[in-house]
Amino acid sequence: MPQDPAAIQQQIENTRAELAVTLDAIAELVSPRRVAERTGEQIRGRVAELRQKVIAGSFGGPAALSADSGAAGNGFGDPAERQELSAGFDSGLVVQRTVRWDRVAAAGGGVLVLLVGVRRRRRRRRRGAA
Question: What is the full DSSP assignment across 53-92?
Fold first, then answer.
């Protein structure tokens, strides 16, 4: 059944436009930058979730954890506070540790960079072997 050439041309243009949108969406999904951003967002979400669990005390271990990331030094507060805590060990005082969320996030980012590097190295090796 013959069709009008103008109608066929319009169908071709519509199909090209749909294909362009589809290809852009696929490129967005597999872009290394976008993959890294999505992974970073997932890690930040999980860290925030963990932080809420820690703050709520749902881990229930012997040491109470604090979400204060501004503490100095090794995470045990200032020297006077450490001395007070160490004196309280015999009286059953619970040691309070500070979680350094900036360090947790930095470690997660470092792991992400290492994983991306390993994947790239493997891809290069496969391409070289083929």
Answer: HHHHT-S--SSEEE------TTTT--HHHHHHHHHTGGGT
